[in-house]
Design brief:
heterodimer; A: 113 residues; mainly beta; six-stranded mixed β-sheet; five-stranded antiparallel β-sheet; 0% helix; 57% strand; globular; B: 115 residues; 1 helix; 3% helix
Chain lengths: 113, 115
């Protein structure tokens, strides 16, 4: 079975500071990993995904994530936070042979001016 | 391409009534997935359907919940005799083929409130 743990339900950073959102996964088979962003009262938008190619994945809006098999992690980073980055972020895993996504609990990102 | 369309956006039902949530996938997408998001929680998988077939319903409650994706028309998630605990946001996603390879596109959700 697959599972995802997002460390920190709330993260607050200053505008211009580094954003780091943590995600650890558990999967008995090589996973596909995803990061989604959800703005208030909206659906989920795909930021980036890892599908067993390059371990450093670049996504939209300046975000990137690195797949580290030894640490079973897929942390999301952005060098410089912008006010518009304030949202809920979800990490998700999909194991080989499975078509459903298993989501983490989410991390609410707040940007301080 | 209008994306994944869900309606209604907001639905209020009294306890014991039925709720019908609709999802029209993106044009060309024949795979549909339903997820439920309870307040302050992540999304939980409910059911995965292809046209006229339920592929995986491992996340569906055994009673009162059903889903269909007919040959023509939208996918429907039906909740009979709603209870307060059914209040949540219900999201639909679609993909052209196997979603984990081709990507999932999510709709904006239906927010169900049971009073």
């Amino acid at each position: 079975a697959q599972s995802v743990t997002q460390l920190g339900s709330h993260v607050s950073v200053s505008e211009g500071a580094l954003v780091l959102l943590r995600c650890n996964y558990s999967s008995s088979v090589p996973p596909y990993l995803f990061w989604y962003v959800q703005y208030p009262n909206q659906g989920l938008q795909l930021l980036l995904k890892y599908t067993s190619a390059a371990t450093l994945v670049k996504g939209i809006n300046g975000f990137e994530a690195e797949f580290k098999k030894s640490e079973t992690s897929f942390h999301l980073t952005k060098p410089s936070a912008h006010m518009s980055d304030a949202a809920e972020y979800f990490c998700a895993v999909s194991a080989k042979g499975a078509q459903k996504l298993v989501f983490g609990q989410g991390t609410r990102l707040t940007i301080n001016p | 391409n209008a994306g994944v369309m869900q309606n209604p956006r907001h639905l209020v039902r009294r306890r014991g009534q039925e709720a019908r949530l609709r999802c029209s996938p993106m044009k060309g997408h024949s795979h549909v997935y339903w997820y439920r998001q309870l307040p302050e929680e992540g999304l939980k998988f409910m059911v995965y359907l292809q046209k006229e077939n339920i592929i995986d319903e491992s996340g569906m409650p055994k009673e009162r919940f059903s889903a269909e994706f007919p040959k023509e028309g939208p996918s429907i998630l039906r909740i009979q005799q709603v209870v307060r605990g059914d209040s949540a946001a219900y999201f639909c996603a679609s993909s052209p083929r196997q979603g984990r390879y081709y990507g999932y596109t999510f709709g904006s959700g239906t927010r169900l409130t049971v009073v």
